[in-house]
Amino acid sequence: MKQVRSKTPYVTSWHCFPPQLQPVKALLKRTFYGFFFSTPAPLMNETNAYVLYFQNSMNLPPDKARLLRQYDNEKKWDLICDQERFQVKNPPHTYIQKLRGYLDPGVTRKKFRRRVQESTKVLRELEISLRTNHIGWVREFLNDENRGLDVLVEYLSFAQCAVMLDFEGLENGEDGFLDKAKSWSRSIEDLHHMSTQPFCNTLVRSARQSVLRYVLKTIKNSRLVSQKDDVHVCIMCLRAIMNYQYGFNMVMSHAHAVNEIALSLNNKNSRTKALVLELLAAVCLVRGGHEIILSAFDNFKEVCKEKQRFERLMDYFRSEEGNIDFMVACMQFINIVVHSVEDMNFRVHLQFEFTKLGLDDYLEKCKHTESDKLSVQIQAYLDNVFDVGGLLEDAETKNAALEKVEELEEHLSHVTEKLLEVENETMMKVADLEKLLLQKDKDLQTIRETYESTNTQVNTLRRMIKEKDAAFQRHFNIEKRLLELEQQGTIRLHKKPDGDIAIEPLGAGSIGLGIPLGDISQLSLGSTAGLIEPGAADPSLPPASEAPPPPPPPPPPPPPLAPVPPPPPPLAPPLPEASPSVILSLGLSAIRIKKPIKTKFRLPVFNWTALKPNQINGTVFNEIDDERVLEELDLERFEELFKTRAQGPVVDLSCTKSKVSQKAANKVTLLDANRSKNLAITLRKANKTTEEICKAIEKFDLKALPVDFVECLMRFLPTEAEVKVLRQYERERRPLDQLAEEDRFMLLFSKIERLTQRMNIITFVGNFADNVNMLTPQLNAIIAASGSVKSSPKLKRMLEIILALGNYMNSSKRGCVYGFKLQSLDLLLDTKSTDRKMTLLHYIALIVKEKYPELANFYNELHFVDKAAAVSLENVLLDVRELGKGMDLIRRECSLHDHSVLKDFVQASDTQLDKLQKDAKAAEEAFNNVVNYFGESLKTTPPSVFFPVFVRFIKAYKDALEENEQRKKQEEAMREKLLAQEAKQHDPKVQAQKKRHQQQELIAELRRRQAKDHRPVYEGKDGTIEDIITGGPDSSLKTPHTGASSSGCPRSRMTVVIHCSAPLKCTLCYVVQTPAQLEHST
Predict the structure, then answer these.
(1) pLDDT digits over 58-72, tens only?
(2) Where are the annotated segments for Disordered (predicted)?
């Protein structure tokens, strides 16, 4: 039934209004039909509701909708009235009926000429309606009732049918004409024959039958249409449809819409071809569009009988040298098709397709074109070309470089190891020299003390000699006086019987003698003393008969080299001895425990009833020896005969014993479950039997037991409770074979004499060499670092400078000081200048460089402070003392029991331990000396606090030197810049050049920033196609990317984004609006 349409101008359907907007509906009806145009604005709620309705109908983007909602009520109402005053010129079915009329092959030639005269005008009106009407009009044009897209594509195919035949020159041959027409009819079919739209299939079949039936007439009509701009305007209509997300999805899913757009490249109008290429390039940038474009050109190749894909496109590119707009569009399309592919291999494939078509040679020819737009596109393509040969060469070079790097890394590793060895050797030599220096200092101190004592004795003797000489002189004078008196006859001297000389005065008294007669009578002249008057003797002189002073005392003996270690604690009393193979029972004789027998294969069970151990006393079983019999039999043959079936290879029962014990239901477990499980895991590491482990422990055999296993076993020393339980099990004379393997091991393990001491000795012996090697470098570092810090003259000068500056700064407030704690060195960075640009340390580094250049490398005298900073001397000394205690324990064990292994160890290790103890003492003494030397406290300043102060100070000093150099360079550059500005201030050429340089720097900075933006792929949303083609405000394709060099260098994936800042040079697209676009985009 024919549909009757209203002659009322096509407007938005009034029945679409919701019930709450019926008052607004009536108001707008009056407004729309022109009854009045200045109706006051209704209430705000009604206006907002209608704005929301119009917003949805116009399909406004979010930013425009947000702007619309921000208007006041009056302006919103004005916009609503303006929108409703606009009358849609024609409904969609009007244009569709006219286009179908042009496609009707049954009309006469004359009637067709009359109709087709207005076809271009109809198409232009359709394009404007599609571009400017609201989304509802477009949806109605595309709905299933009108099928406007099918009609438009069919008309596009009809309009360019003659163009295809004209290019082949077949219009004069009827047979060829018919064959080409058949081929052209196939071009509008769906390349994917599984279409599910019956109308499309009917349309395709109808179009093909029409072409075949009315070939000549259709071609003539098509040639008449092709002489007009119908193809160009059809493409613009499709572009307007694709600008909506709904329309874009329909075009992309259409069977042959994109194919027909691609076939429009055969149009003779260069402007049309440029428009087609721009539209195809835009589609290529949308997600999934690249594959559709390539499929369209595959169809183009089939329909146009190309030997290679893109062959005719390249022919047009070369033949249109005078049309720059088309060449730019063509180059832009090639850029996008080739360089918008994520897969690098596929990109190389597409690039090679154009290379085979001669694109590279032609671009070399066109590279120096006068057109900037074309030159930019060409350069963009050349910059992004993948040079496969260069890439291969780079790959080979990279592999060679990687091999060289690996070789250098290996060499560096060896050099580093050698450096560490040399450093350790040097540190050891320095430590030895420091120890020798300490010993020499001690010897020097002893010699100095001896010298001072001897010097004191010599001075005493000299004083005594002087006193003796004075006394002798006095005696000589007295004796001379007496002789003179005797000659004068005043006295007479005569010798007494005892040998003394008596003085007898001859005159009255002793007048004139000057010597009392009583005293003179008492004088006696000895063989050595002479005549001495007793009263005239010096009271300070010793008596004549006094013995000479004793010789000086000998120098004190040197101090002992090492303190005698304290005696070790007494050994624990041994456990009560018990034979491992005998169980003592109350009231019963001893029963020998039988060892379990190991078999190679599993044997069947002999189901006998066994006697209990306490039941065999006095029986025959107590007198027989079954073990002797087993030694005489051929048990291998026995196992081969009686082994159970379906057995694998030989089973090592020593490895699977724990599993068997777990599966056996009759095994007795006396230990804690977790402890037993952990013990089983530990025992499996040794891969030895219980007897072998215990025997190795008794013999201190470290070759049989690794040290790490012994350390693990230390955690399983039996406790008193476990020993008590195991002994109770023995006293009950229960068989050992019923015990689990871990319990059996613990039983034998607990019976080892002095177990704890033995385990400690084994652990000590096994770790002794490692401990010595670990402790020696740490002690050497302390000794070397302490000596270097104490003996560094340059460090003293640096501290002197710091003290001087500090006193200078603090003297007015706190007064001068005589020294400071080393922790104060960290505060040099906290003391800043007035402008906050320089610290006190920076200033010290500056004056050292200027005034004291010899101190600039003072840190070279501080050796190994970084290594010493990581040493805990207290722990090291404790470890050394523990080693001494361990060695004493071994010596005591050797004195009690003769163990050759331990004796050999003591002989080999005693020297190492003695040297280590001496090093520990030397390190402690050296560190104490250097700490006291710098006025620090030994209690609060360990090496981990003392040496890091110097490490931080050295690092901060080096940083200050570097920052001073940078500041100096900046100041010099600023000074030169100011001088240059002053010299060129009045030069206009320099000003212009400066401005141009600044612009270039700004552009470069923008490129660097924008190149970092993430570039996602376009989605087919409303306005996307228009933004891509016209380079709108949301487009990121205004210029091609000509950034990093591409000759051999693969770049990361290039994608496109809508809402982001685009790079100034985008590889994918450079869109140029031609005059035709400007004309038809209004």
Answers:
(1) 556 676 667 777 777
(2) 531-573, 1023-1050
